[in-house]
């Protein structure tokens, strides 16, 4: 597999627009009426990988594989790159997130990304992650959607929280970009341009990534 050529998109377009982008990126979406045609058979490994996680603080249900194209299953793939081991690379046109490993491979995750794209290309780093984080909608979003007023000071963690099971916080230098990699239970949004901001991974995948990524690791959007 040759190294993927990624489009020139980024994760920052100014502080004020970023707040709007992040808010849009964390919003929920409507479940589609159509389903992905499942390839028979689904391997036991995939079923196990996306099984329920009852041990979580908020028990995570199994992924509904009727809504997930098999190409977005988490898997280790050949990925030659000059980036350091541990780097996270967002492949926006193909809806993938790669975590670079030793020996020319990477762990690849299917992602849901922004419908509006990004106008900045560059590098940041993963400053830290949070389990079952609180989500605080920006004031601009609350002004547009008055029903969110009750969450102005933060929505408690849980399956209904837009950030899901984990959130990885992206900084540029010492500054928070207001850009997140976070969990979702909305299986049908993986592989789709559904937002204007954050990168969504399935709960099971974002837990796996958060466990593997070291704080300070580089994230690249080319």
Automatic annotation (TrEMBL):
Organism, scientific name: Pelagibacterium halotolerans (strain DSM 22347 / JCM 15775 / CGMCC 1.7692 / B2)
What cellular component GO annotations does this protein have?
extracellular region
In the record, biological process GO terms are: cell wall organization; peptidoglycan-protein cross-linking; regulation of cell shape
Its protein name is L,D-TPase catalytic domain-containing protein
Q: Mind listing the UniProt keywords for this protein, alphabetically? A: Cell shape, Cell wall biogenesis/degradation, Glycosyltransferase, Hydrolase, Peptidoglycan synthesis, Transferase
- Spell out the catalytic residues: 182, 198
Q: Does the keyword Mitochondrion apply?
A: no
One Pfam family assigned to this protein is YkuD
Similarity section: Belongs to the YkuD family.
What pathway or pathways are given for this protein in its record? Cell wall biogenesis; peptidoglycan biosynthesis
Task: Name a GO molecular-function annotation.
Answer: glycosyltransferase activity
Annotated L,D-TPase catalytic domain ranges read 86-222
